[in-house]
């Protein structure tokens, strides 16, 4: 089993493992403890009390982060005719139909999000074994199977991200970069928490949000107080002033 390096151990030692930090404090600490020379992503991990084996306790959707992700989002669109032109005008990085499907079957996956018009889903369907495990399969539930291609591409480029519980009922999301201002990260964090609460399945029982952890790509996890879900940005004003 590999061991963590000296700098990671030192960073971890600066985190109180028993404490649940206020959101603004946690974000500042995550930024202070960044270790890599590159601009690390800030990761958010929310453990829910959902029983994801039950269909009525699945949690999945999309959210547009107010301050984006701090990276270029590459979008692939399955469309033809006027809709293909619409996708190109909206800024899609690659557009195609059967030809795009063939490229993906041959190993092309250099994109973050795939969007498709409904008429091309029979073509896209055969790519499930490739795109599914990567979380890139177009899905009408999250707005990536649509005739409004322009809107879907523009929202994706602006930082709209998909969230879903994994098999252990945890939601994993990036909310920006360590180079972001504290307030920008806090606003993205607050937007995600608001959305997760809004999307709570009606069949959910018991404690919904169990734990919340923030971390940079290479840094240690910082526990966040899961009870702090309202007025997150407003509460931070005195501390950040």
List descriptors:
single chain, 241 residues, alpha/beta, 9 strands, 4-stranded antiparallel beta sheet, 3-stranded parallel beta sheet
Q: What is the strand and helix layout of this fold?
A:
Layout: H1 6-12, H2 23-32, E1 41-48, E2 60-64, E3 75-78, H3 82-90, E4 94-96, H4 98-105, E5 113-116, H5 121-125, H6 128-131, H7 149-157, E6 160-164, E7 170-177, H8 182-198, E8 209-216, E9 222-224, H9 232-240
Parallel strand pairs: 3-4, 3-5
Antiparallel strand pairs: 1-7, 1-8, 2-6, 8-9
Helix pairs in contact: 2-8, 3-7, 8-9
Arrangement of strands in the largest sheet: 7-1-8-9
N/C terminus separation:
44 Å
Poorly predicted runs of 5 or more residues:
none
Structural class: alpha/beta
What would you say this structure looks like, in words?
- By secondary structure, the protein is α/β, with parallel strands linked by helices.
- The protein is built from 9 helices and 9 strands.
- The strands form 3 sheets. A 4-stranded antiparallel beta sheet has the order 7-1-8-9. Strands 4-3-5 form a 3-stranded parallel beta sheet, with helices on both faces.
- The longest helix has 17 residues.
- The chain starts with 5 loop residues before the first helix and ends with a helix.
- The mean pLDDT is 90.
């Amino acid at each position: 089993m590999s061991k963590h390096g000296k700098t990671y151990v030192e960073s971890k030692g600066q985190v109180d493992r028993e404490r649940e930090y206020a959101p603004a404090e946690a974000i500042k600490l995550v930024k202070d403890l960044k270790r890599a020379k590159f601009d690390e992503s800030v990761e958010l991990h929310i453990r829910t009390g959902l029983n994801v084996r039950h269909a009525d306790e699945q949690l999945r959707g999309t959210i547009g982060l107010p301050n984006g992700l701090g990276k270029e989002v590459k979008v692939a669109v399955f469309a033809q005719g006027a809709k293909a032109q619409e996708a190109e005008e909206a800024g899609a990085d690659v557009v195609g139909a059967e030809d795009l499907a063939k490229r993906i079957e041959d190993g092309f996956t250099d994109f973050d999000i795939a969007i498709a018009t409904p008429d091309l889903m029979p073509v896209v369907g055969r790519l499930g074994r490739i795109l599914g495990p990567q979380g890139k399969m177009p899905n009408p539930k999250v707005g990536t199977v649509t005739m409004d291609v322009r809107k879907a591409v523009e929202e994706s480029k602006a930082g709209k991200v998909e969230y879903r519980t994994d098999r252990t009922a945890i939601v994993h999301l990036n909310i920006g970069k360590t180079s972001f201002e504290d307030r920008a990260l806090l606003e993205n964090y607050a937007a995600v928490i608001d959305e997760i609460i809004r999307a709570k399945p009606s069949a959910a029982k018991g404690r919904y949000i169990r734990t919340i952890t923030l971390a940079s790509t290479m840094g240690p996890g910082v526990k966040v107080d899961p009870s702090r879900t309202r007025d997150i940005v407003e509460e931070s004003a005195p501390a950040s002033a």
